[in-house]
Amino acid sequence: MKRIQMFGLLNKDMDQIEKELYRSVQGDDELLAETSLHLLKAGGKRLRPVFVLMGGKFGQYDLEKLKRVAIPLELIHSASLVHDDVIDDAELRRGELTVKAKWGDKIAMYTGDYIYAKALVMTSELSNPRIHQILSRAMVEMSIGEMEQIRDFFNSEQSVRHYLRRIRRKTALLIAISCQLGALAADAEPDTAKLLYDYGYNVGMAFQIRDDLLDLSGTEKQIGKPPGSDMRQGNITLPVIYSLEDHRIRGALLTELASIREGHSGVGRAIDLILSGEGISRAEELASRYISKALVALDQLPSNRTKRNLKDIAFFVTGRAY
């Protein structure tokens, strides 16, 4: 999916961030630059930089400061995707071959490490120790989330609570701190930064649930990879967990999941079972509840045009109509 379209002058600022994002991974090693650019140029919504800039609108907006937060956050996100693709043995991302598929596991892992390191180099230019503390802790939490996902591959007995804790670490936390750190870098009030964190956290939770839903109900063109890829990789997501709670389809779904785990076909049949039950609608309902919480936090922020833009983004990333 292409980068989301921004509002007014932020389009121009995002264009500059996009160019500097590419430049940030060049100049050290030809192969690492090539593999990193392959990933970055495949696209993406650039949600994290967008949220940094939006957070900065609640303080003293300074692009030179904000880009030293926005670019590293996008690099950290991108590095985690490279590592994910190795763990998941993924061939496609955003409709393009993954770094792992094109260059192999070893090059992919070093590419992820390189991108992480580039993010840290850029953040070292920031003088606010609070920003470094928040960012470092988030990277630790993301790593824990990755380990939790690996441990739970093909675990059909995992709880909704466990799933939510995992996506908090893997996805929601980075979006939350993007909003928060944008505000802190712009010297916004601490209470404002906290409300932006709450908004970002809830949008991030809804975003990941929606992404997991699309993996089951979207087309390959929409999601840039074959539907059901999560199940193929052993990742049991919320709509699957809810479907396993439905006694009418639980037995048949467990059979198909076991077949998938053994490397046989069954993804299509598993998706059909899930679509026939209430797992999709229950997951959609929970995503909507998270968006409602995000809007509550948003309502408490100081009034400015950015509040409306943040509302628009919340609905955009979750596909919710209003």
CATH architecture assignment = Orthogonal Bundle
Biggest pleated-sheet summary: 2 strands, antiparallel
What is the count of distinct domains? 1
Strand segment tally: 2
Mean pLDDT: 92
Radius of gyration: 20 Å
Element string (H = helix, E = strand): HHHHEEHHHHHHHHHHHH
List keywords for this structure.
322 residues, mainly alpha, Farnesyl Diphosphate Synthase, two-stranded antiparallel ribbon, Isoprenoid_synthase_dom_sf, Polyprenyl_synt, Heptaprenyl diphosphate synthase
Topology:
Layout: H1 10-23, H2 30-40, H3 47-56, H4 63-88, E1 92-93, E2 96-97, H5 99-103, H6 105-123, H7 129-151, H8 160-185, H9 190-217, H10 220-223, H11 229-232, H12 238-244, H13 250-261, H14 267-276, H15 279-299, H16 305-318
Antiparallel strand pairs: 1-2
Helix pairs in contact: 1-4, 3-4, 3-8, 4-6, 4-7, 4-8, 7-8, 8-9, 9-15, 12-15, 13-14, 15-16
Structure description:
This protein is mainly α. The mean pLDDT is 92. The chain has a two-stranded antiparallel ribbon with strand order 1-2. It has helices spanning 10-23, 30-40, 47-56, 63-88, 99-103, 105-123, 129-151, 160-185, 190-217, 220-223, 229-232, 238-244, 250-261, 267-276, 279-299, 305-318; strands spanning 92-93, 96-97. The two termini are 22 Å apart. Pfam families: polyprenyl_synt. This is Heptaprenyl diphosphate synthase.
Quick overview of this protein structure:
The chain has 322 residues and is mainly α. It is built from 16 helices and two strands.
